[in-house]
């Protein structure tokens, strides 16, 4: 199956943002470890969040998807005993990383693994930190990569965490930290990648009753004996997924409004809107909605997107139709994602006719007349959606394996179809 995009100029559209994937993952974990019952309302129902929910069930936590929400019976930080268990988390890096620390709360050995690409995604900084906190993390294949076996217990204490590849290493420990035997204090030697996601983690933990003491992004402390409390929790809209709709306005011209967004969200991918504004779009926020309009030419910019990693490819697509070059920095860690997103994006834009220069932590896009191509997203949902949007700007772009968007946004193609874009 393939999807081919045709040119769609001058749009005037309205969409609803799907629920946040990042918030849904974290809410599921907090609810699973909480004391009492929780209901997660308006969760994202996608491949990745289903993997997290399924893994929690395998660890002995009742998780029931029903009536548009998720009912979770929390274990109070005490996962039930049982036989050794293996959690196959596909290509959901968020699921595997966040659940690695949760596995230390289980009295039985837990093996965490995934698909072929997952086995290429580094995990050593998290494993080293957990060992410093009392756990035992053993690589079952290549050292420092999944599959891993987690056993022992989360004693607590102090640890240094290298978050330069992923802030999820830090978030993972923080989410399990309330149930350590001692306080947990994490020192972060370098600026963590995608650091805004640590704010999302703190936001969810606080919503479930646990506070993090912190000094910016360099030190975090969680008190032993803190407890998540069961509650009803509504998941906010996702700025990463909304970026594709905003990019339609920027690439095609016209106006797009996206509903069900929190204008004051902790999500770092809100920075995408700042990028569009600097490029010449008009951005306005209403009560739970954001509108992007573009009538004139787009201008190139230089911008650090280290706090908004999931919108880098979308921004690169917009940059390809601007009137001048754009340089995107803070992107070195994207090679550790579902695919090497920097390499895939650069190679695809070059095939389309754009000039692209890549450095260790930056990419410069030189706009040029574009031609349609066939894009193999390499099982990466964000590649498929970013280049689909670019295809709407000039046509002739075919996306193979369009179903890969089910990882984060199963309704993406339906949303475009209902808007008359397909």
Automatic annotation (TrEMBL):
Q: Where are its TM segments located?
A: none
Subcellular location(s) per record: Cytoplasm
Q: Which domain of life is it from?
A: Archaea
* Pathway field: Metabolic intermediate biosynthesis; chorismate biosynthesis; chorismate from D-erythrose 4-phosphate and phosphoenolpyruvate: step 6/7
Name the residues annotated as catalytic in the UniProt entry. Answer: 310 (proton acceptor)
For the ligand (3-phosphoshikimate), the binding residues are 21-22, 26, 166-168, 194, 310, 337
Q: Which UniProt keywords apply?
A: Amino-acid biosynthesis, Aromatic amino acid biosynthesis, Cytoplasm, Transferase
Instruction: Pinpoint the Enolpyruvate transferase domain residues.
Output: 16-416
Q: Which PANTHER family match?
A: AROM/DEHYDROQUINATE SYNTHASE, PENTAFUNCTIONAL AROM POLYPEPTIDE
Oligomeric form and interacting partners: Monomer.
NCBIfam families, per this entry? aroA
Entry function: Catalyzes the transfer of the enolpyruvyl moiety of phosphoenolpyruvate (PEP) to the 5-hydroxyl of shikimate-3-phosphate (S3P) to produce enolpyruvyl shikimate-3-phosphate and inorganic phosphate.
Entry's family note: Belongs to the EPSP synthase family.
What name is this protein filed under? 3-phosphoshikimate 1-carboxyvinyltransferase
State the organism of origin.
Methanoculleus frigidifontis
Q: Gene encoding it?
A: aroA
């Amino acid at each position: 199956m393939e999807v081919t995009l045709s040119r769609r100029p001058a749009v005037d559209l309205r969409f609803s943002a799907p629920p946040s994937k990042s918030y849904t993952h974290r809410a599921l974990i907090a609810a699973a470890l909480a004391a009492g019952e929780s209901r997660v309302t308006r969760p994202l129902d996608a491949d990745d969040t289903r993997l997290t929910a399924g893994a929690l069930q395998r660890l002995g936590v009742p998780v029931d998807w029903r009536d548009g929400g998720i009912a979770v019976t929390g274990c109070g930080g005490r996962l039930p005993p049982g036989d050794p268990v293996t959690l196959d988390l596909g290509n959901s890096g968020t699921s595997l990383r966040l659940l690695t620390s949760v596995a230390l709360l289980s009295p039985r050995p837990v093996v965490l693994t995934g698909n072929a690409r997952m086995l290429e995604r580094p995990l050593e900084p998290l494993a080293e930190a957990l060992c410093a906190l009392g756990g035992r993390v053993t690589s079952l294949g290549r050292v420092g990569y999944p599959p891993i076996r987690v056993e022992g217990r989360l004693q607590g204490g102090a640890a240094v965490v290298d978050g330069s590849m992923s802030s999820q290493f830090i978030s993972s420990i923080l989410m399990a930290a309330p149930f350590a035997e001692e306080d947990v204090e994490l020192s972060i030697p370098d600026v963590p990648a995608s650091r805004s996601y640590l704010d999302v983690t703190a936001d969810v933990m606080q919503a479930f009753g646990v506070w993090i003491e912190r000094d910016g992004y360099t030190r975090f402390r969680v008190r032993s004996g803190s407890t998540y409390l069961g509650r009803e929790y509504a998941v906010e809209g996702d700025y990463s997924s909304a970026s594709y709709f905003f990019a339609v306005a920027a690439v095609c011209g016209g106006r797009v409004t996206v509903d069900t967004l929190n204008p004051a969200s902790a999500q770092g991918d809100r920075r995408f809107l700042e990028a569009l504004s600097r490029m010449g779009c008009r951005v306005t926020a209403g009560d739970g909605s954001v509108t992007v309009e573009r009538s004139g030419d787009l201008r190139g910019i230089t911008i650090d997107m280290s706090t908004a990693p999931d919108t880098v490819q979308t921004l690169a697509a917009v940059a390809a139709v601007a009137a001048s070059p754009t340089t995107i920095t803070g992107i070195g860690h994207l090679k550790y994602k579902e695919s090497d997103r920097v390499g895939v994006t650069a190679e695809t834009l070059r095939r389309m006719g754009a000039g692209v220069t890549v450095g260790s932590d930056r990419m410069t896009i030189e706009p040029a007349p574009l031609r349609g191509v066939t894009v193999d997203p390499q099982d990466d949902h964000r590649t498929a959606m970013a280049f689909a949007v670019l295809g709407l700007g000039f046509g002739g772009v075919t996306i193979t394996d369009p179903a890969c968007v089910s990882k984060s946004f199963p309704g993406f193609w339906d949303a475009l179809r209902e808007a008359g874009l397909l």
